[in-house]
Design goal:
- The structure is a single chain.
- This protein is an alpha/beta fold.
- The protein contains 13 helices and 17 strands.
- The chain is about 25% helix and about 20% strand.
- β15 and β16 form a beta hairpin.
- The protein is globular, with a radius of gyration of 23 Å.
Length: about 450
């Protein structure tokens, strides 16, 4: 007989002591919208509607600390609208550091309720407090153009930025430059997350300027999770155009952490879903372990060595967020992923030029195989240029598509970034006008400030 290895159900409790204190929301709990815990600030200037959410799970404190810090610092958008939402306050009120899992929700996971079917209820039907709160928050989520949902993890592990499957969100994750691991995932079998609700779940060609990211900032109780939440808020607000870089530094000193030296993109290929509460792993996995061989047993459904075994579906399989703390029938206990690519943020010389080549930069951009062409439109909606997906043009198409995904249009900021991405070709275009029309166009936008809208045409 083959000996059965001892099962690992979770990290020992002694290793997961809460050092992050529970924030006192005080007067900030009330909100200013008529909905408790929701704050909204309108700049009066056209721009994106940015939403940052925290406490979707009541024991995930890092996001609450970040929103509290934004409110205390007096952050206001320079353009568009900024909404800050403390979400599951009823679950948060139950928080006990000695039994923190019990305050994740009141009766059901709020972050599995975000489908029109679940949020549309029959009058008089019984509602859990978690679903009631999701229904109350729904209008604010529907209003938003860009969403950052702040979370933390059951286990002590490196931060993860979850993008969903849409290339626009992957491009935004890369543009943010942190954290080191980006997870491209389809969501959960047991319900829809806020990040994928409504317009946020639409394909790129229908979604317009919508962007949504979910950040897992590390273990719930680690002080470092608050640092990650601070960093992501600062980066997100600046990238969205809600705050200038100067205002971020002035209002949020010390919030921005160093850029990740490299980003690893993990594409989720499947998941293990518990059949019951007895699921256990064969090792005390923390997350991001790479299992070399397909068919390796990583857990069992009915206890140590008992019941159906769970195995890795392919070679070089990365384990994403393994945890049995919420194990019950239908709950995802681990995701499987492949390391799809590694990206390095461009390094700039003192004069602001990138040390990377165009080929280096192009390798980091999202693929555009799904596109037939990209059209550029003037303010009247007239097509002024088309970049086709064909040899000699595909690189420019990838650059323009990535810029549109990040900026929403090809404006001055997008054009300046595009000139960096074109790297050595930009200098050639400056000295030989007409040799690179797609770079000439960016130079013109920088010079005139006249932005162009973008329309993606799928293949």
């Amino acid at each position: 007989m083959t000996a059965t290895r001892p099962a690992a159900t979770s990290t020992p409790a002694s290793a997961l002591t809460f050092t992050l204190p529970c924030p006192d929301l005080g007067p900030w709990r009330a909100g200013n919208t008529g909905t408790e815990g929701v704050w909204q600030f309108d700049s009066g200037v056209p721009g994106r509607h940015v939403l940052i959410t925290a406490l979707v799970h009541g024991n995930e404190l890092c996001g609450a600390w970040a929103l509290l810090g934004l409110l205390q610092a007096g952050v206001r958008p320079q353009q568009g609208v900024l909404t800050l939402a403390f979400c599951n306050l009823a679950a948060f009120d139950r928080f006990d550091p000695g039994n923190h899992d019990a305050s994740r929700c009141v009766a059901e996971d709020m972050n599995r309720q975000w489908s029109a079917e679940r949020l549309t209820t029959t009058p008089g039907a019984p509602l859990t407090p978690d679903l009631q709160r999701a229904i109350a928050l729904r209008p604010f989520v529907q209003q938003a153009d860009w969403l950052l949902d702040l979370h933390s993890m059951h286990e002590r592990a490196a931060p993860l930025l979850l993008t969903g499957l849409h290339p626009r969100n992957v491009a935004l994750a890369q543009a943010l430059g942190n954290p080191a691991h980006v997870v491209v995932d389809a969501g959960h079998a047991d319900g829809v997350r806020m990040r994928d609700f409504g317009r946020f779940g639409l394909p790129d060609e229908q979604a317009g300027d919508c962007r949504s990211l979910l950040i897992e900032c590390g273990f719930h109780g680690d002080l470092s999770s608050r640092d990650v939440a601070h960093d992501m808020c600062a980066r997100f607000l600046a990238t969205a155009g809600a705050l200038s870089a100067a205002d971020c530094q002035r209002l949020l000193p010390g919030w921005r952490l160093p850029d990740a030296p490299q980003q690893t993109q993990l594409t989720v290929t499947g998941a293990a879903v518990a059949q019951n509460e007895r699921f256990c792993f064969v090792e005390p996995y923390q997350g991001l372990e790479t299992i070399a061989l397909a068919g390796t047993v990583i857990g069992h459904h009915d206890g140590p060595g008992i019941g159906e075994a769970v195995t890795t579906p392919h070679d070089d399989c990365v384990l994403v967020m393994p945890s049995v703390r919420q194990a019950q029938a239908g709950v995802t206990v681990v995701r499987f992923a492949r390391a799809a690519c590694r990206t390095m943020p461009p390094t700039l010389t003192p004069d602001g030029k990138t040390t990377m080549t165009f080929a280096d930069n192009l390798a980091q951009l999202p693929p555009v195989t799904h596109l037939a062409e990209l059209q550029l439109l003037d303010p009247a909606g007239k097509v002024v240029a088309t970049i086709e997906n064909k040899p000699g043009k595909a690189g420019s198409l990838a650059v323009y598509a990535a810029l549109a995904a990040k900026h929403g249009s090809i404006d001055t900021a997008a054009a300046e970034e595009g000139l960096q991405l074109f790297a050595e070709h930009t200098e050639t275009a400056r000295t030989h006008p007409g040799s690179h029309p797609n770079i000439d166009r960016l130079l013109e936008i920088v010079a005139t400030g006249k932005a162009l809208a973008v329309k993606l045409v799928t293949a």
